[in-house]
Amino acid sequence: MPRHAPCATRRHSPRCSSIWINSRPSTIRSATPAATRLLQQVAERLTDCTRASDTVSRLGGDEFVIVMPKIRAPADAALLAEKILAALAQPYAIDGRELHITPSIGVAVCPDDGCDASALIQHADAAMYLAKDSGRNNYQYFTTALNARAVERLALENAMRGALQRREFSLHYQPQVDLASGTLVGVEALLRWRHPELGQVPPDRFIPVAEDSGLINPIGAWVLQEACRQAMAWQAAGLPRILMAVNVSGVQFRHSDLVELVSVTLVESGLAAGDLEIEMTESVLMQGADAAVAVLRQIKALGVQIAIDDFGTGYSSLGYLKRFPIDKLKIDRAFIRDSASDPDDAAIVSAIIAMAHRLRLKVIAEGVGTVEQLHFLRNEGCDEAQGYYYSKPLPAEDVERLWREWRVPS
Ligand code: C2E
Ligand code: MG
Ligand code: MG
After folding, report:
1. Three-state helix/strand/coil letters over 66-133
2. In which domain, by residue range, is 47 found?
3. In terms of domains, do 62 and 177 share one?
4. Are residue 383 and residue 302 in the same domain, yes or no?
């Protein structure tokens, strides 16, 4: 479809809709025969969902646009979006393996959201980002509020450019405790951004923007270097060796040479590989299975530990636990929150712990906030815990103080 052509059907119909789909078939490395086959299957399903009068086109990468010239009401686009979500949710058989994708769909409607192709596409694209932010696998319409959001996003991205050089980022560290002995065994490095005008911006707000803009690559590299430097500074100050856990975004897995970064950072900082842990979410594994397994194996070969963050929230096949060289599962805090009161959450937590141990994986519970949760986890044989019950994430100096004063419960 010509990108800047006017919405030709406007003369015939009062409404024309543009649907922008980001199908994320990056479950496999792009530009490989397998990726091409996956894209072909996605394109076939999209075509099967549409009518002869609709146009399906691929804009490049994993992004498709559908133009529906004949809709009666904006809600018609939602019907198609739902049909597409259901069609794309079916597994894909590629090279004898089953793959899943998580599409995000944005909808813009003429005349409400613009009347030329370029405005409709731009607005459908903005709506797609909202769908992504809302957890993927859903569709969103473009609205004025959304436009305001897009502007805010852009402002955040601009503010983030140069933030590293201006030294606006810092790391806080949250203790991780061994449940059997009560000793402090590690810390998780958590990124903080203080902008001179915006103030403290929460990571949940700026990290998705950093990921979409690619800024997460230099920022993530800084996080790793700073965390390793800090770990060595604590050792130099006479504190015992503990594990330093660092969050790594899926974008870093796909777009930068993570293995090289990790190995150079270890050499430069002097930190032992076994004292570093990389945390990543299940979705990273699911979105780039082949590429991710190769990267993880190389990181593992360096001697670095690997943990799956927010475990239990991604809808994924448990088969990956066998395929990937994982050391630890971090049970998502949503399950821990009600584990002492809700039998269903308690059952999920005990099942995860039992499964992890059968697979010889360690388990850490995140978001532990009460003594009841702690007792429950200890009874279930959970290895480690992290949460406000012990401490909020703290600046490096406060961690050092907390650590020196740490008393193992008798
Ligand atoms: P996460 O990796 O799952 O980190 C745990 C989050 O839970 C942290 O939020 C932490 O402050 C919070 N938390 C810990 N204990 C409790 C508790 O008892 N109760 C409650 N309500 N919350 C608790 P934070 O620091 O806001 O980070 C949010 C997310 O941002 C992180 O989730 C992680 O996904 C991401 N993030 C943070 N730093 C980095 C980073 O350096 N790189 C990347 N790629 N992502 C990061
Ligand atoms: Mg984490
Ligand atoms: Mg987490």
Report:
1. EEECCCCCHHHHHHHHHHHHHHHHCCEEECCEEECCCCEEEEEEECCCCCEHHHHHHHHHHHHHHHHH
2. 15-142
3. no
4. yes
